[in-house]
Design a protein that fits this description.
Number of helices: 2
Strand order of the largest sheet: 1-12-11-7-8
Structural class: alpha+beta
Helix content: 10-25%
Number of strands: 12
CATH topology of the largest domain: Immunoglobulin-like
CATH class of the largest domain: Mainly Beta
Distance between the termini: 80 Å
Strand content: 35-45%
Oligomer: single chain
């Protein structure tokens, strides 16, 4: 036993260092995972109400920039949504809930990818409510996309391809300035504090809801 201890003395002395190194590496991986999964890096609106958002998509195979000046036009509760010919259609939401229409303004290079964003309302208590179409029902004309016009969404990546995103055949270029709307379900009585827009965590645009934008 003594001979074994003498022969492995250096290894035993180095064991605590190895354990500490392993723990630090594990902690770093957990921190990286946590940071990449949440929204922690706010791009807040300036004094003119515009969030000058810049980010990039990079999955190790395909990379492209994401950049737009984003502003909040309005946030208002709704009980109907117009259909394609302008006739209001009733909205069905879960019991105890209400529906909000969020209208955003965008200014961006038509060649920049803005497809695939996420939008949420954050209330005065800090609770986030994500826009999800399956949370309500209506025969009204709800948008297909959240941050781009349905008819001219601009360039889109092809899943599984490393080719540069481009405008689909037969589609016109996306206009450099436009508005886009989406719908968010919250419990009744919620008071919106801000609207968040993001593509890839942790970065997001934060747009305050003030008396001008609140419907």
């Amino acid at each position: 036993m003594r001979s074994w201890l003498r022969g492995n003395r250096i290894a035993l002395l180095l064991l605590p260092i190895a354990l500490i190194t392993a723990l630090l590496a594990s902690s770093s991986r957990i921190e990286d995972y946590w940071w990449g999964k949440g929204l922690h890096q706010a791009v807040r609106a300036d004094s003119s109400g515009v969030a000058r958002f810049k980010d990039a998509y990079d999955d190790g195979y395909l990379t492209y920039p994401i950049a737009a000046d984003i502003s909040l036009t309005s946030v208002e509760p709704v009980t109907t949504i117009d259909n394609s010919v302008g006739v209001p259609q009733p909205v069905t939401v879960p019991e105890g809930a209400m529906l909000w229409r969020v209208v955003l303004g965008f200014r961006a290079d038509p060649d920049v990818v803005l497809w695939g964003c996420h939008i949420a309302i954050v209330d005065t208590n800090g609770t986030r409510y994500d826009a999800e179409s399956r949370q309500f029902q209506s025969f009204g004309a709800t948008p297909i996309y959240s941050c781009v016009p349905d008819d001219t969404p601009g360039p889109k990546p092809v899943i599984g391809s490393t080719a540069k995103p481009k405008v689909a055949d037969g589609e016109s270029p996306r206009p450099p300035a436009y508005e886009a709307e989406t719908y968010v379900v919250t419990p009744k009585g919620v008071k919106p504090d801000n609207v968040r827009v993001w593509w890839i965590p942790p970065k997001y645009a934060e747009l305050p809801v003030d008396e001008t934008s609140r419907g």
